[in-house]
Amino acid sequence: MLKKYYKFILPILVALIILIIPAPQGLSINAWIYFAVFMMVVIGLILEPIPGALVGLIGVGILIWLKIGPKGSGDVNHIISSKEAVNWGLAGFSNSTVWLIFAAFMLGLGYEKSNLGRRIALLLVKYLGKTTLGLGYAVAIADLILSPFIPSNSARSAGIIYPIVSSIPPMMGSYPNDGARKIGSYLVWVALASTCVTSSMFFTALAPNLLAMESAVKSGFSGVTWLGWFIAFAPCGIILFLLTPYLTYVIYPPQIKGSKEASKWASLELDKMGKMSKKEYLMLFLALFALLFWIFSSVDACAVALSVMIALVIFNIITWNDLLSNKAAWNILAWFGSLITLAGGLSNVGFLSYISSICADVLSHFNSNIAFAGIIILFYLLHYFFASTTAHVSALLALFIALSANISAINLDEIVLLMLLSLGIMGIISPYGTGPSPVWFGSAYISSKDFWKLGFIFGMIYLIIFLIICIPWVSFAHSIIF
């Protein structure tokens, strides 16, 4: 009986155990209580006894009742009013990045409803999909083409690429519970791994990149342009992108090596679609409009995305009912809104400054180069504790910037940029590490055990290549990038 309900019991048990342990010296009881609730939410997001968005909302609700979370609430003598607590709890839902992600889902829906995204993917499958390896590259390239235009890897990978990829394995007798390893497992992993790489490659390919940049600049980072970001990651990104389908082919090989059926199927599907429609041309124009403004304009990225979303409705590419009924978008709004609130509260109650002081003392005894790499590695691996990149950024980025600033001989701009560039690739390490992960994991083509194993293998490969290439490259090309 207990086994059936362990997913419900374990998060609460973890919180109770933390509460039983006395608060460490230098940390207030309020900060310790906050940490207990935060860890309950993190464990809940990992186990998901209920939808992740609801887990986050429960955590926010508990803290609102406790009146712990707003600035100053870490001090037990500081009185927080109910209104202050509620305003704090709802603040995440007014965050521009949350709404950018919401609008990005609508952009993804526009690609889907106009059939432009499907056309791009089918063209690639037609010309590259005659072998399984070629099909893997077709899936990866489709994501690469869409990534600069859609600042949500969920909308891009789960909304556009997934419907195409999921249509291919059944044609070759590959189903989740019967013959998954024939080709389905391979394609699923390539699709997820590729979107993690492209999420780091382009500033506008991952919504948390924008949030991270905003937070970093406020913490003393000089900032980089869209082009500067691309230049900084390009040497590593190109290698990772080219390696991913092949590495998957070697490490997690498909049983079927040829896939002429996929190429023929794509050709037939394109014939059925006919010539490009007016909606496809409009969608292409709006996508290019968004990209140009994200790269060259000072207009806020959220404002651009919301404007394009409105245009999609006006031009009838999507309908108002499509917008209202997009459960995934509204779910993300609730999920990210609560997580951003919870992550920000860690700083408000003084927990992050406490951890920062401890880590700074430890790292100060190491050589600056070792400390430099150690900070990046730690920032990367701590993603195991987060169910979204946005939550990771909100909870840890400011802390790690402050930590880096306290260590002599470390170039703050370079180490901060490297942390920002790692945000996409770190999503590969867990089944909940990035937006589309639950969708690909939920396809059931890869078992839970294999998913975790592949996440660890690819996560370490990505991290090692990233450290070896990006650290010296960012230093060498400093004047070009910044």
Automatic annotation (TrEMBL):
Chief location bin: membrane
Pfam families for this protein: Na_sulph_symp
Entry keyword set: Membrane, Transmembrane, Transmembrane helix
Topological category with respect to the lipid bilayer: Multi-pass membrane protein
Family the UniProt entry places it in: Belongs to the SLC13A/DASS transporter (TC 2.A.47) family. DIT1 subfamily.
InterPro entries to which the protein is assigned, alphabetical: CitT-rel, SLC13A/DASS
Name of protein: DASS family sodium-coupled anion symporter
Residues passing through the membrane, by range: 5-23, 52-68, 88-111, 132-150, 186-206, 226-252, 281-297, 332-355, 370-403, 415-434, 454-476
Native organism: Campylobacter canadensis
Top-level lineage group: Bacteria
Subcellular location: Membrane
